[in-house]
């Protein structure tokens, strides 16, 4: 069989409400609540879902699955179509949470917007713009990441699996084999990642 | 076969209608797959696969080996993300009792997975071998052979398999309706009893 049979057509879905009891769904609540608390951010999910409906059988490498959703082509087209010139407060608000932009380009664009808005009347409105800008940039960045509790769960589980696999590697390939070294390296990296997250910075 | 409660896969969920993961779930799965790829080849070898499945499910060694052989359709000794994604969807469908729906929605990929020798025909042996994944019951298959085995060779080609999936889906939906009706009647009775008392 040479075909890659599965076509991963994805859709935005409603939460699974049938099987799991509420007492066991803490992590899942964190996962869904992270987006529910920012209703406007759902725009990103829908946009990404729409832009990502492709046939998975055309992809042979796992790296192709993961595309950064922050810079689809449409966003660049939209930005080009926008009038260059003064950007009013209303326009900034109207484009609230343009999640399609990457954080760096987003900030750059808004810095340019702020520079162009020398025509804004009061310093208060420019402060509001900056506050709004940072706030939006923060949420834009958050959209790009997986929730921390989920990351922690993934890393802990991966560590357990890799540690068990290390025993098999050592018995099958030996301690000095390069595959065993690579596995050991991955385990050390994940442990550093986990320990780094657990350390609380001193005030 | 059961998924370990509290594991990462246990947190994912399938869309009930299409029996696939959402983009966000797939993104998380990609990250997870990357964590389990120490050699940075975007693949998972048989040893890693065994430890992964042994950790997240209660499958035994024989079952894990048969699943790996089923997924490694290129006989490369490792599976890529496509096959991993397929496996996760199958596991979640089984966990959430959506096997009939999954097979109905993805009859072609499932047929190709079960057709291990590439003969474009699958028999009762294949179903028995992967009963722990797809939950295809013997009595359903026997009924089906009586009514729909057009070629009469007790092997299913793709069209016959597709008919079989429609047949099991109909049965599943009838069963769901009957259960819902039963629950409604029970609720009505309880309500009447409550009002009378």
UniProtKB/TrEMBL annotation, chain A:
Compositional bias per record (Polar residues), positions renumbered to this chain: 99-108
**Where is the segment annotated Disordered?**
1-29, 46-124
Looking up InterPro entries in the UniProt record yields: CATSPERZ (IPR039019)
List GO BP terms, alphabetically. flagellated sperm motility; sperm capacitation
> What are the GO cellular component annotations?
CatSper complex; sperm principal piece
Q: Spell out the Low complexity composition-biased ranges.
A: 11-24
**Compositional bias segments (type: Basic and acidic residues):** 70-84
> What is this protein's name?
Catsper channel auxiliary subunit zeta
What organism does this protein naturally occur in? Answer: Myotis myotis (Greater mouse-eared bat)
Upper taxonomic lineage? Eukaryota, Metazoa, Chordata, Craniata, Vertebrata
UniProtKB/TrEMBL annotation, chain B:
Molecular-function annotations in GO: calcium ion binding; calcium ion sensor activity
InterPro entries per the record? EF-hand-dom_pair (IPR011992), EF_hand_dom (IPR002048), EFCAB9 (IPR042798)
- What positions does the domain EF-hand occupy? 136-171
Q: Which GO terms describe its cellular component?
A: cytoplasm; sperm principal piece
Q: Name one GO biological process term.
A: sperm capacitation
Recorded hits in Gene3D superfamilies, A to Z, give: EF-hand
Protein name, per record:
EF-hand calcium binding domain 9
Q: Which organism is it from?
A: Myotis myotis (Greater mouse-eared bat)
């Amino acid at each position: 069989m040479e075909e890659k049979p599965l076509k991963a057509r994805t859709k935005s879905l409603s939460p699974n409400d049938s099987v799991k009891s509420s007492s066991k769904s803490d992590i899942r609540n964190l996962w869904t609540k992270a987006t529910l608390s920012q209703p406007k951010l759902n725009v990103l999910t829908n946009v990404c879902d729409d832009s990502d409906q492709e046939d998975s059988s055309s992809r042979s490498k796992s790296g192709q699955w993961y595309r950064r959703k922050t810079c689809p082509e449409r966003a660049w087209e939209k930005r080009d179509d926008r009038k260059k010139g003064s950007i009013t407060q209303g326009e900034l608000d109207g484009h609230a949470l343009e999640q399609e932009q990457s954080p760096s380009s987003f900030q750059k664009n808004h810095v340019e917007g702020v520079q162009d808005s020398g025509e804004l009347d009061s310093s208060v409105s420019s402060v509001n713009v900056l506050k709004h800008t940072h706030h939006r940039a923060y949420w834009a960045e958050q959209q790009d990441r997986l929730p921390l509790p989920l990351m922690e769960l993934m890393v802990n589980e991966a560590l357990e699996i890799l540690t068990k696999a290390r025993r098999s590697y050592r018995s099958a390939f030996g301690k000095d084999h390069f595959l065993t070294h690579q596995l050991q390296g991955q385990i050390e990296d994940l442990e550093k990642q986990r320990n780094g997250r657990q350390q609380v910075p001193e005030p | 076969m059961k998924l370990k409660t509290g594991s990462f896969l246990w947190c994912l969920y399938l869309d009930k209608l299409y029996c696939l993961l959402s983009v966000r779930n797939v993104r998380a799965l990609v990250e997870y797959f990357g964590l389990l790829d120490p050699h940075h080849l975007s693949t998972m070898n048989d040893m890693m696969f065994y430890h992964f499945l042994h950790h997240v499910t209660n499958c035994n060694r024989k079952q894990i080996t048969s699943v790996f052989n089923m997924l490694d359709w290129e006989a490369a000794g490792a599976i890529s993300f496509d096959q991993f994604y397929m496996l996760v969807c199958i596991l979640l469908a089984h966990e959430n009792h959506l096997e009939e729906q999954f097979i109905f929605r993805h009859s072609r990929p499932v047929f190709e997975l079960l057709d291990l020798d590439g003969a474009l025909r699958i028999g009762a042996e294949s179903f028995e071998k992967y009963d722990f994944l797809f939950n295809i019951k013997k009595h359903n298959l026997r009924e089906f052979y009586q009514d729909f085995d057009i070629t009469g060779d007790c092997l299913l080609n793709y069209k016959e398999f597709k008919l079989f999936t429609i047949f099991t889906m109909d049965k599943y939906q009838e069963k769901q309706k009957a259960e819902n009706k039963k629950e409604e009647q029970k609720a009505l009775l309880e309500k009447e009893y409550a009002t009378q008392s």
